[in-house]
Design goal:
Helix content is 43%, strand content 15%. The chain is α/β, with parallel strands linked by helices and 252 residues long. The structure holds nicotinamide-adenine-dinucleotide. The site of nicotinamide-adenine-dinucleotide has 28 residues, from helix 1. This is 3-ketoacyl-ACP reductase.
Amino acid sequence: MKLSGKVAIVTGAASGMGKAIAELFAAEGAQVVVSDLRVEGAQTVVAGIESKGGKAIAIAANVAKEEDVQQLIDTAVSEFGTVDILINNAGIMDNFVPAGDLTDELWDRVFAINTTGVMRTTRKVLPIFTERKSGVIVNIASAGGLNGSRAGAAYTASKHAVVGFTKNVGFQYANLGIRCNAIAPGGVSTNIGTTITAPNPFGMERAMVGMGLNPRAGEPEEIAKVALFLASDDSSFVNGTVVTADAGWTAY
Ligand SMILES: NC(=O)c1ccc[n+]([C@@H]2O[C@H](COP(=O)([O-])OP(=O)(O)OC[C@H]3O[C@@H](n4cnc5c(N)ncnc54)[C@H](O)[C@@H]3O)[C@@H](O)[C@H]2O)c1
């Protein structure tokens, strides 16, 4: 097993990629903190992991709230003793709203979850990692973090920020035994569509221009396998970079 004895925190783990990552990590021997805004969903994931003999706990946490982030990491440490792996996965879409139609409210909400949440969990685990001189962070960015029109302006900017943050943390803490990488998934079959409540027609039309180039949608389990690689010692020489997983969509 690749994560035997490791303690992993996964945000947004009630659904989609976070759920698949939590399940795979538990199957690989990790003790998993299944965290989500929706705690019932997280508890269902924990029950599934336990039914297969794995070890997990559910913690309610809104990554956009500093007090929730504090409590998430503190509870993980009090329950499991430490944190070895942080997977920043929680994220929302932005209704494909283009720059000219953006509201401060939408911009702030998308950044609070997709970007500030990543910063806050990272800020909170780094003292633990630096003291132990080991730790791994994997951020779920997006093809929209590397390209210009996979979503609206706020989502695109929020995920580009995650890519920059990933590289900064990866380099700055490299000599302290800490690695920080990101995954840029293409289209993956999850429940994220439920966060697209009122798509902006102009922005969506502009975002969909390249969809004909997409070879196929991915499954959450395919992203979980990339996360396992990045979280395990198999990727010991991989740091401060972004792994694209999109069936070749962005290679054109
Ligand atoms: N699905 C895709 O096509 C795709 C592509 C590229 C990147 N991503 C990214 O992958 C990540 C996971 O998304 P998914 O597709 O699995 O979506 P999903 O909606 O299936 O799962 C996301 C989970 O995050 C939780 N969540 C939302 N806001 C939260 C908050 N403030 N605090 C804590 N949890 C919160 C939700 O309750 C949900 O359980 C996101 O960061 C998303 O931007 C998705």
